[in-house]
Amino acid sequence: MDLREWMARHHPRLLGLIDWPGYRLRGRCWAEGCGRLMALHSPRRLYACESTPMAIAFTERGEALAAAIEREKASHLPAAAAR
Ligand SMILES: [Zn+2]
Predict the structure, then answer these.
(1) Ligand 1 mean position, distance from CA 21 (Å)
(2) What is each CA distance from 2 to 5, 16, 18, 32, in whole angstroms?
């Protein structure tokens, strides 16, 4: 059992103590149009990146799934049943 597994089992709320240094030192920035190492961010740059949207998007499959979930939700509404 490695340290992270042990922490997850015994102190799940303290997992950040193990994950944060790796993220801060070796992780790449997720902000749209950045992608630099997190360690190379000045506090000002970090603030700018934190208020920039992440470079992620729905895939076609994800959009289809979201639409299916919306249809499913709408079919359970009482107003939809009355129609
Ligand atoms: Zn950044």
Answers:
(1) 16
(2) 5, 15, 12, 34
- CA distance linking residue 30 with residue 68, whole number of Å: 28
Stretch 18-23: mean pLDDT, rounded?
90
Q: Ligand 1 centre and the CA of 25: distance in Å?
A: 13
Tens of pLDDT, residue by residue over 50-70, are 999 988 888 999 999 999 999
Show the CA angle centred on residue 47, arms to residues 43 and 50, nearest 5°.
135
Q: pTM for this one?
A: 0.52
Q: What are phi and psi of 54, to 5 degrees?
A: -70, 150
